[in-house]
Amino acid sequence: MIEVTTNTTFSNLEAYFEHIPENTFVSYTFFNALENSFSIGKDTGWLPFPLIAREEGKAIGFLPTFIKEHSYGEYVFDWVWAEAFQKHGLSYFPKIVCSIPFTPISGPRILAKDLEVKRMLIKALEKIMHQHKISSCHFLFTNSEDQKILNESGWMHRQGVQFRWTNKNYKTYDDFLNTLSQPKRKKIKQERKKLDNLNLNVIRKTGSNILEEDLQFFYQCYCNTYAIHKSTPYLTYDFFYEIYKKISNKILLIIAYDSDGPVGSALNIFDNNNLYGRYWGAIKYIPYLHFELCYYQGQEYCIENNLSIFEGGAQGEHKLARGFEPFETYSSHYIVNEEFRDAISKFLEEEGDRMSVYTNELEERSPYKNE
């Protein structure tokens, strides 16, 4: 007999992560680092609430779900929905979210091998929402397989767009530049030359070459990015320190130096095929430094190490001019209140039409030759 229960922590669920292919972001190490560092949990608005499935005491699947009291750190925006609930005297929060906190990267969210177990977890989640009068649940940045299951289960579909760079078997960075249209190629060369004229030294480090002092400097930069926008960092230093200790072999740390010392840094995660641009910052404003550390250095690293895809993170049409191309992202939503469900369904249908037009326009602005 299959039993579905809930938990209030990820710290004892290591066996449940074994049901998915290797994925750094959907891994026990990553979630445990978030929890141990207090980046999620009490006072963060991200309360762990995983649904877990067992058969005869054996782990067979789970959902990385959270009780949320706000919509920060999700990158799929539903503030308008929350405002509509409030105007009608209804509570939108708390809600349930199934996602990787602060990480807009597509991947598996229904973590089970068996299709029936996946469907059972979804049904159990719906039952919890109705029983406990929770307004809604949101699966964010799902892969196509999970999106299909959620669509078949009657959940509402939402489409988004991000940008990624594809390594088309380039041997050198010039090989890549030569595939771009002349204006785009010229723009990148000009930006990089201006930085060269400043005599900046950019170093890429992975694994044991990353020193603790490097990580400390990176975190100073990361915090400064938030300070500039009068905001507070989502992630604590302890989070970065824990992944540095556990998975430094999957971290690409890029640091730029001028004559006075380090001035900026970007931290990326990579696997056998993909590079994921995640976090960056600088302690000095230097024009084009962001593009160098967050895009051009990552592209070069992919070429040198035969990585196929470089995902640049959420939003940013400026990525288009630097060789990144648009691709669709997906999320799924269940609204308990039927009237609001109908209204939001209509909203998503109209938004989807606009998003399709927008994506087509982006594709027409391809930076590549003869496209």
TrEMBL record:
<dbReference type="InterPro" id="IPR016181">
    <property type="entry name" value="Acyl_CoA_acyltransferase"/>
</dbReference>
<protein>
    <recommendedName>
        <fullName>GNAT family N-acetyltransferase</fullName>
    </recommendedName>
</protein>
<dbReference type="Pfam" id="PF04339">
    <property type="entry name" value="FemAB_like"/>
</dbReference>
<dbReference type="InterPro" id="IPR007434">
    <property type="entry name" value="FemAB-like"/>
</dbReference>
